[in-house]
Design a protein that fits this description.
Elements: H1 3-34, H2 36-44, H3 50-64, H4 67-79, H5 85-98, H6 100-109, H7 118-123, H8 125-135, H9 139-169, H10 172-179, H11 184-198, H12 201-213, H13 219-232, H14 234-242, H15 246-276, H16 283-290, H17 295-314, H18 318-328, H19 352-383, H20 389-414, H21 420-456, H22 462-488, H23 491-521, H24 526-551
Helix pairs in contact: 1-9, 3-5, 4-5, 4-14, 4-15, 5-15, 5-17, 6-12, 6-17, 8-9, 9-12, 11-13, 12-13, 12-17, 13-15, 13-17, 14-15, 15-17, 15-18, 16-17, 19-20, 19-21, 19-22, 20-21, 21-24, 22-23, 22-24, 23-24
Length: 564
């Protein structure tokens, strides 16, 4: 055995795997950014129809070329309560089918002998994509270039892996050693372990395809390695699930049970097939007959066949799988459910474009909490009714929590691979979150003014109360237009919001003027009057902070088509 040849082959294989992994990551991140709006709309369509869930998982994975990313995304949605376990399970089924697209691409790239192979043709896309990325001025152009570069690099890595496999195949000792590994269970375990290490079933399947094509292993060995890769692919989901809530752990467990079930069923069927045909038939012989003279296609088609069949078996058993997962991971008695993020989960950071959209939803939720507390504060100070004071305090606690957590999340998200639009949006969130937290603070001030009135056993005059309620009405109208502008990047709504904000400023001046008149008339005491003036000024500042939220869209509107 030539040690130098073995060393060169090992280094070439390692380089090929590295290039392939980088290509997968590059394709996945750019595809996700390019299709982020469609992907978000796709996941929003999840309903109770199980076939719809399968379709969403399939299309979502095919769109971003990463079943791991889709599964982690699903775990994040389940953890924050946006998606049920049943919905998550069906999406995972579809995701497993969607991930076979990479194997089909690899198989397609390995056709062509004696001329220009498809591998060389597809690899050329790496250079084309690099030039597009280099000279493009727009996000869309850079994303397109990144996708083409990643696609081409897939085949550069594949070519390097195939070259290394050819070198190994030329060494009789290596072939003899690999040929001796024929135990299906051992091959499944090896495939699972290697996939767990690489953290990519696509890479493991591609390695198996190149080994089969170069004759390093036979088709049956490649089939069992591929089956094992499905189990190993659960590692990413298990890691994400173990660090999250109960339902997230259950989702990761459903993913593992689903893949284990498929492998066990196919292993048992293989045993039955071998016994009933006296060893004459196996999965290998069947796919060799169905796709003759194309070993790469034989293994790629088995991979798709395996995942489709597993989905067909599991789909009617979804409720059973969910119940099993719930029994294996029982509900824990929560010590306390303090403030928490409603729409965000740390695992979503693995899909930055989706996390950015969820961050926006969380901010809109924070805005609703802030305006709700302002309304409660106005009710308290105009009626001295403290029946909702506990809810007020809890909401204020949540606002302070969201202020800290959303800022931390935005900073973490800003370090991800984001489009220029998303980067500008994330930058704007820091100011937006602070503005909303200040709305809550001013509401708290108003309640303190009510406390002062109660201590003095005083109250505002009827005229003063009417003016306060007029102010509340204007702030509520402003809030509606602000959120319309913020959610839809609606410049017309921003224009209407600016008009209302000016009306709030005018009303503040009017309230101060009327207050002076009441002091002169003796219908209002100076002590009560000071609380009234502070209330008017605080309400006007609430309007200022709300309008700041709407103004953030000015930097986002030019690229509305690529944003959310």
């Amino acid at each position: 055995m030539d040690i130098t040849s073995v060393l060169i082959a090992i280094l070439t294989l390692t380089a090929g795997i590295g290039v392939f992994l980088i290509a997968c990551q590059m394709m996945s991140s750019n595809l996700e950014s390019a299709s982020s709006r469609r992907l978000r709309r796709l996941f929003a369509k999840t309903g109770n129809n199980k076939w719809v869930g399968v379709g969403i998982g399939l299309l979502g994975t095919a769109a971003i070329q990463s079943s791991g990313a889709v599964t982690v995304m699903v775990i994040g949605f389940v953890n924050v309560g946006i998606m049920s376990l049943t919905q998550a399970a069906t999406i995972i089924y579809g995701s497993n089918i969607g991930t076979t697209v990479t194997a089909q691409l690899v198989a397609l790239g390995m056709f062509g002998n004696g001329g220009i192979s498809t591998t060389i043709i597809f690899a050329a896309f790496a250079g084309i994509g690099a030039f597009i990325s280099l000279f493009s001025k727009t996000d869309k152009g850079k994303q397109t270039g990144g996708i083409l570069t990643g696609f081409g690099m897939l085949f550069v890595g594949l070519s390097m892996m195939a070259s290394a496999m050819d070198d190994f195949a030329a060494l009789p000792e290596i072939k003899t050693m690999l040929a001796s590994v024929s135990n299906p269970i051992l091959l499944v375990i090896v495939g699972a372990l290697l996939t767990a290490i690489i953290q990519s079933s696509s890479v493991m399947t591609s390695i198996a395809i190149t080994m089969v094509v170069t004759g390093l292993i036979n088709l049956s060995q490649g089939i069992y390695l591929t089956m094992g890769s499905n189990i190993g692919s659960c590692v990413v989901a298990m890691i994400a699930g173990m660090t999250s809530g109960t339902n997230a752990k259950r989702t990761a467990l459903i993913h593992l049970i689903f893949n284990l079930m498929g492998v066990v069923i196919f292993m048992l069927l293989a045993l039955v097939l071998r016994i009933t045909t006296a060893g004459a038939w196996s999965y290998g012989t069947l796919f060799e007959r169905w796709f003759p003279s194309a070993p790469q296609l034989q293994l790629a088609m088995f991979h798709t066949f395996f995942n489709v069949c597993t989905m067909m078996i599991a789909l009617p058993l979804t409720n059973v799988l969910v119940n099993v997962a719930c029994r294996m991971v029982p509900e824990k008695e929560e010590q306390e459910s303090g403030p928490r993020l409603q729409y965000l989960d740390p695992s979503m950071l693995s899909t930055p474009a989706v996390a950015a959209r969820q961050l926006k939803t969380e901010i809109e939720n924070m805005a609703e909490l802030a305006i709700t507390n302002f309304r409660r504060a106005i009710k308290v100070i105009t009626t001295l009714d403290y029946s909702e004071i506990e809810e007020f305090r809890q909401t204020e606690q949540r606002l302070n929590f969201l202020n800290q957590e959303l800022l931390k999340y935005a900073v973490a998200l800003s370090e991800s691979n984001l489009s220029s639009y998303d980067q500008r949006y994330i930058s704007s969130t820091i100011r937006t979150v602070s503005d909303l937290e200040r709305v809550g603070d001013y509401a708290e001030n108003i309640v303190e003014y009510a406390d002062s009135l109660r201590e003095q056993e005083a109250s505002f005059s009827k005229d003063a109360v009417k003016e306060i309620l007029r102010m509340e009405e204007l702030v509520n109208k402003l809030y509606v237009e602000v959120m319309q502008a913020y959610h839809n990047k609606d410049l017309q709504a921003l224009g209407r919001a600016n008009i209302i904000e000016e009306q709030i400023d005018d009303l503040t001046v009017e309230m101060e003027r009327n207050h002076i008149q009441r002091l002169t008339d003796g219908s209002c005491s100076p002590a009560v009057g000071s609380e009234y003036l502070s209330l008017a000024q605080n309400s006007e500042r609430v309007g200022d902070h709300l309008i700041n939220v709407a103004k953030t869209i000015k930097d986002l509107v030019p690229e509305k088509a690529s944003g959310f």
